Amino acid sequence: MIVPLSHLLVFASVLFALGVICVLIWRTNVIMVLIGIEIMLNAAMLVFVAGSYQWGRADGQVFALMIIAMTSAEVSLALAMVVYLHRRKNTVNVDEFRQLRDR
Fold it and tell me: Which CATH number is 34's domain given?
């Protein structure tokens, strides 16, 4: 059974909207912001793969692999920063880290 392109685009847009909502609602928690960003990147990756299947080219799948590589690097660095900052401040609240920006 082949899923139509319109269904994939609707699903990807709902997924992207959920990621934006996650970032906007839980913007005080660093971990939830990272999860929201990951959801948005997965929605973009789904659109690339759906477009690549629709037009019969492998470009979208190559971009999807690049997104996977980028997100794995982003997650490892971001979680290392979160662990470091949690050890330093004993919280993952974004408001507590605002003073680090001023220095």
Answer: 1.10.287.3510
